[in-house]
């Protein structure tokens, strides 16, 4: 008789027992479930602002992207590609089709069409808001495959987890941040992964895929210049370290030629791949590879080495001479344009401050402080060098690539705050290698058996190598305890990282910028929705062909939400036009009205933070207006607005400052306002001083609208007096 | 190294190259012929551009790049099909040729869009 089973005879339990998986299948199940959880995590951690405020587009640039996507879905691709926008940069207009990167808009429109095809009737704004988190989730998947390619699946999983919550990436890809970077980082990592895969396999199909990835990147972001310079640099490093191989030749050539051709289809990029100095490195390496291949082929065919040496010498000198002459001729004749200011300021960080004030004025272009690095990377900052050490220990084509990517991107991240975003995938991958390798070594130690037990069983068989790896050194008795302690430490660090990332996302990177929040006197939350209030006032109370003059920061939002023509906007393509507006803002009212009449301005919009204590208002940005205006019109001199080099708005301020248009528009009727208990009327809470000129009279403008917290103030330009 | 000896060297170089090349298999020679033809076509286009000017620059670029592109792809095919390359010995030549055809297809579709 068989023994009675311990458990009662349940068919369900038998079913579960029959699912007993082999180790390989268990591992696959664990991997897939981790990836699914990471995918969902990357998405939901970016939803803080949607839950706290509402599903809206943040910041300034995304409003332009939203407006163009709206146009694309309403009018179709042909009209979008050939769109001339007469509602911005009055009276110049803007050729939108030829001056934007269409990748983001086309992607969002495609997702919108697919959803509508499946009968999900979503609004395009919802799709736009959630595009960035969706692509962040896809980036985690690409990071997993990339990690698998460079190191192994463990590193891939850790890389996916790290990049899912890394604040450096979250900062530009929260829900609502509908900007190029949200899609571009996915395209960047995808292109790099495909290229490394192509170099590893030497297959034309993977190179073709990487060319398409590069095309997507070019269509998405101007930062594609990083790819087209990093990959030739990588090929050069491989050539120098003696790792030239046929696979490299196949991968780079196919990717370069096809990628260049595809990239030239984007009108904004145009012929830059053959005419711009920034892209010449790629072409140079292309020709260098041809020379390498040719020499390799000749060496293979000739049996006599001495003859080959002679041939080598002749060819190399000829090639270098021809290349140098061609490059020199190109640069001298001006055919090959030098590096543009935007990218030249990355190589020489002091260049922009002296020569191009508009680039220097953008807050994201400032050099990075250590606190930003710590804030955005946390423990990855010291895991990165550890990962570099592991990469150098096991050098291969793929690890050389990730090392180069990491080092170059970290240099650029140090030059400009905004570029921490580009460094984030590299830092996550390299740190993942460190974490994975360390945890693997520690767990191998934990799972090993004692030496005494092993020597009895093995008889010098093939398992000796495996057993020696797993052997504990008898002279260090507490190795296992040490390993357990170190593992606990590692997991503690990682959990601290997760806590930090979530806190940073919640506190620092989830504010929509267009809606401000503060704590009231009793701790309750106060919402300032002034921007949207002002834009909707514009939309509903001004004639449809009214022109609005404001500083370029608000241009995109005014056209998108206010639906009115603006003079300058965030595209900043015409410095003289912006300088004209800056000159108008910094002149006396009589001079300014001449400029405004010449531009057909109907309304002027200023942002003022004196009542609420909002510090990103136009008075704080005013010196940049002076600098930019003064850069084109020497009549505006910065020292006129300063007192002893100090920027003041109170009684001791410079007379030009107290009477310029910006001052008058911001502080009109503010002299009677009581802002804080115990302070005199006209106390500016953002600057912390009582203003100097309280009795302001406007001659040519009249106040049209001031929002409920005085943040946005709109003035109407009065028509000229009747002549008599 | 006097003049005469370097000339001699050039001569021996040329002859040894010629004899080594004669030993390559026929399929590789066909691919080499195709590469030579496309480079020659590219050169003709550049000479023509030098004479007539480069006005529709996109047309000129697409013409030259189609020749250079197909030459480069043919060289990649040659690398992958060449039996002496150890790295590609697992790759069946049919797969290599299929990749070549696919890349050429993409190349020429993009060229046709770019031709203007």
UniProtKB/TrEMBL annotation, chain A:
Q: Which UniProt keywords apply?
A: Glycosyltransferase, Magnesium, Manganese, Membrane, Metal-binding, Transferase, Transmembrane, Transmembrane helix
Q: How does it sit in the membrane?
A: Multi-pass membrane protein
Lipid biosynthesis keyword on record: no
- Its predominant location is membrane
- Which pathway does the UniProt entry assign to this protein? Protein modification; protein glycosylation
Family, similarity comment: Belongs to the STT3 family.
Q: Which protein, by its recorded name, is this? A: dolichyl-diphosphooligosaccharide--protein glycotransferase
Q: What is the lineage of its organism?
A: Eukaryota, Viridiplantae, Streptophyta, Embryophyta, Tracheophyta
UniProtKB/TrEMBL annotation, chain B:
Q: Which UniProt keywords apply?
A: Apoptosis, Endoplasmic reticulum, Membrane, Transmembrane, Transmembrane helix
Tell me where it mainly resides. endoplasmic reticulum
The record's subcellular location field reads: Endoplasmic reticulum membrane
Which pathway does the protein contribute to?
A: Protein modification; protein glycosylation
* Bilayer topology: Multi-pass membrane protein
Q: Which domain of life is it from?
A: Eukaryota
Family named by the database record: Belongs to the DAD/OST2 family.
Q: Subunit info?
A: Component of the oligosaccharyltransferase (OST) complex.
UniProt protein name: Dolichyl-diphosphooligosaccharide--protein glycosyltransferase subunit DAD1
């Amino acid at each position: 008789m068989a023994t009675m089973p311990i458990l009662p005879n349940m068919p369900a339990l038998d079913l579960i027992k029959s699912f007993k998986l082999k180790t390989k299948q268990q591992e696959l199940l664990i991997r897939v479930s981790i990836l699914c959880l990471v995918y969902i995590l990357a998405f939901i951690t970016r939803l803080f602002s949607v839950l706290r405020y509402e599903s809206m587009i943040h910041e300034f640039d995304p409003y332009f992207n939203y407006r163009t996507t709206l146009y694309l879905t309403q009018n179709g691709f042909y009209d979008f590609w050939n769109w001339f926008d007469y509602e911005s940069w009055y009276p110049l207009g803007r050729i939108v089709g030829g001056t934007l990167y269409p990748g983001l808009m086309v992607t969002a429109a495609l997702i919108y069409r697919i959803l509508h095809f499946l009968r999900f009737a979503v609004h395009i704004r919802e799709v736009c808001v959630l595009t960035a988190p969706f692509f962040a989730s896809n980036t985690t998947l690409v990071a997993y495959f990339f990690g698998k390619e460079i190191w192994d699946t463990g590193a891939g999983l850790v890389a996916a987890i790290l990049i899912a919550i890394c604040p450096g990436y979250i900062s530009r890809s929260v829900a609502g941040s509908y900007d190029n970077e949200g899609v571009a980082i996915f395209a960047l990592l995808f292109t790099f992964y495909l290229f490394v895969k192509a170099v590893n396999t030497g297959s034309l199909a993977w190179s073709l895929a990487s060319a398409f990835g590069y095309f997507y990147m070019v269509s998405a972001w101007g930062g594609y210049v990083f790819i087209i310079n990093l990959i030739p640099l990588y090929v050069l490093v491989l050539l120098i370290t003696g790792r030239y191989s046929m696979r490299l030749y196949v991968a780079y050539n196919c990717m370069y030629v096809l990628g260049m051709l595809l990239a030239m289809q984007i009108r904004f990029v145009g012929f830059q791949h053959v005419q711009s100095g920034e892209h010449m490195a790629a072409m140079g390496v292309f020709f260098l590879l041809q020379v390498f291949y040719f020499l390799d082929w000749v060496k293979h065919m000739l049996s006599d080495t001495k003859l080959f040496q002679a041939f080598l010498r002749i060819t190399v000198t000829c090639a270098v001479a021809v290349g140098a002459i061609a490059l020199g001729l190109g640069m001298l004749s001006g055919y090959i344009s030098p590096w543009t200011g935007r990218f030249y300021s990355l190589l020489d960080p002091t260049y922009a401050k002296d020569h191009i004030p508009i680039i220097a004025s953008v807050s994201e272009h400032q050099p990075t402080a250590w606190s930003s690095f710590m804030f955005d990377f946390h423990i990855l900052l010291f895991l990165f060098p550890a990962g570099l050490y592991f990469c150098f220990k096991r050098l291969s084509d793929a690890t050389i690539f990730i090392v180069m990517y990491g080092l170059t991107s970290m240099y650029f991240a140090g030059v400009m705050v905004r570029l921490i975003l580009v460094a984030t995938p590299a830092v996550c991958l390299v740190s993942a290698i460190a974490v994975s390798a360390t945890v693997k070594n520690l767990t191998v130690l934990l799972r090993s058996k004692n030496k005494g037990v092993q020597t009895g069983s093995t008889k010098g068989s093939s398992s000796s190598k495996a057993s020696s790896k797993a052997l504990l050194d008898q002279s260090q008795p507490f190795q296992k305890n040490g390993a357990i302690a170190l593992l606990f430490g590692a997991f503690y660090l990682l959990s601290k990282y997760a806590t930090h990332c979530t806190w940073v996302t919640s506190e620092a990177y989830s504010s929509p910028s267009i809606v401000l929040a503060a704590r009231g006197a009793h701790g309750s939350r106060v919402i300032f929705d002034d921007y949207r209030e002002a834009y909707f006032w514009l939309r509903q109370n001004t004639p449809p062909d009214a022109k609005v003059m404001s500083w370029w920061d608000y241009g995109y939002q005014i056209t998108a939400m206010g639906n009115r023509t603006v003079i300058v906007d965030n595209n900043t393509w015409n410095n003289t036009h912006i300088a004209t507006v800056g000159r108008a803002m910094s002149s006396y009212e009589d001079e300014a009205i001449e400029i405004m009449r010449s531009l057909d301005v109907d309304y002027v919009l200023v942002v003022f933070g004196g009542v609420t204590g909002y510090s990103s208002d136009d008075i704080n940005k005013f010196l940049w207006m002076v600098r930019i205006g003064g850069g084109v019109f020497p009549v505006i001199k910065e020292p006129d607005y300063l007192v002893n080099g100090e920027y003041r708005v109170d009684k001791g301020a410079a007379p030009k400052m107290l009477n310029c248009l910006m001052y008058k528009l911001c502080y009109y009727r503010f002299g009677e306002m009581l802002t804080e208990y115990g302070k005199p009327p006209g106390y500016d809470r953002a600057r912390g001083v009582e203003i100097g000129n309280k009795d302001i009279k406007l001659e040519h403008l009249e106040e049209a609208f001031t929002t409920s917290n005085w943040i946005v103030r709109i003035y109407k330009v009065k028509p000229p007096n009747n002549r008599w | 190294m006097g003049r005469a000896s370097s000339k001699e060297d050039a001569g021996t170089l040329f002859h040894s190259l010629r004899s080594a090349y004669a030993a390559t298999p026929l399929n590789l020679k066909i691919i080499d012929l195709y590469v030579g033809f496309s480079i020659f076509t590219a050169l003709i286009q550049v000479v023509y551009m030098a004479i007539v000017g480069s006005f529709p620059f996109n047309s000129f670029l697409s013409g030259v790049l189609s020749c250079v592109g197909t030459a480069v792809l043919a060289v990649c095919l040659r690398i992958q099909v060449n039996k002496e390359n150890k790295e590609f010995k697992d790759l069946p030549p049919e797969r290599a040729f299929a990749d070549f055809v696919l890349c050429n297809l993409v190349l020429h579709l993009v060229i046709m869009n770019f031709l203007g």
